[in-house]
Write a structure and sequence with these properties.
- This protein is of the alpha/beta class and 209 residues long.
- It has 6 helices and 9 strands; from the N terminus they run ββααββββαβββααα.
- β8 and β9 form a beta hairpin.
Length: 209
């Protein structure tokens, strides 16, 4: 039997052989109680997008402002605010959807600029809410990125885009690959370190936690 704690989803996963009895499972859980409690202490507390909350989008702070107007559903960025028109109970969902769309626009722009720099073309860019990786690039030139990069510092989001675009030329992590990344994003090591240290915190915001 084995245990794995997903600190992003706050879920404890237990794997056991098919014929393992409930008594054996309970005994195993009791024997690992200390480990379980230690993992639970690492759990991420969800932070919904709500009225007056302040969130950072690519280094710029925005305060969520709710304006309930009858018959109108809309979210827009305006004068340092993310203004939401619609039912209060839908603010979290509406802001999450809006930020995903905004992420697609911004991250596509970064990728296209980097691709042009190295004389390559991106086939398609997809924005997802991935938990295991920040981005990926297929041999067909399709790049997938996590929308939550929008909530990271701008240099970090740019680094991930540069990383995936570099794969258009080098589908590996060879010295040649990292030389392309460095040419596109000279301070990539700092951004890489920031993601390793702080990346999991980006998953506490909005829906999908």
């Amino acid at each position: 039997m084995s245990l794995r704690f997903d600190s992003i989803k706050n879920v404890l996963n237990l794997t056991a052989p098919p014929r393992t009895s409930q008594k054996q499972i309970l005994g195993f859980l009791e024997s690992t109680e200390g480990w379980i409690l230690k993992q639970l202490s690492k759990a991420i507390t969800s932070v919904p997008f709500e009225e007056s909350a302040v969130i950072s989008v690519l280094d710029q702070d925005y305060k969520i402002k709710h304006e309930s107007l009858y018959g109108r559903l809309d979210v827009k960025m305006q004068d340092g605010s993310i203004v939401v028109h619609g039912p209060e109970e839908r603010i979290n969902m509406m802001v999450t959807i809006f930020l995903k769309r905004h992420a697609k626009s911004m991250l596509e722009e970064y990728c296209e600029q980097y691709a042009t720099t190295i004389g390559m073309e991106v086939n398609k860019i997809t924005i997802r809410d991935t938990k295991s990786r920040w981005g990926s690039c297929s041999e067909e030139g399709n790049i997938s990125l996590c929308w939550r990069l929008l909530l990271a510092p701008k240099s970090v989001a740019e680094y991930v885009c540069a990383h995936e675009v570099a794969h258009l030329k080098e589908m590996n992590h060879s010295p040649d690959f990292w030389k392309i990344v460095e040419d596109l994003h000279p301070h990539y090591k700092d951004s890489k370190a920031w993601l390793k240290k702080n990346g999991r915190e980006l998953f506490k915001y909005g829906l999908g936690h």
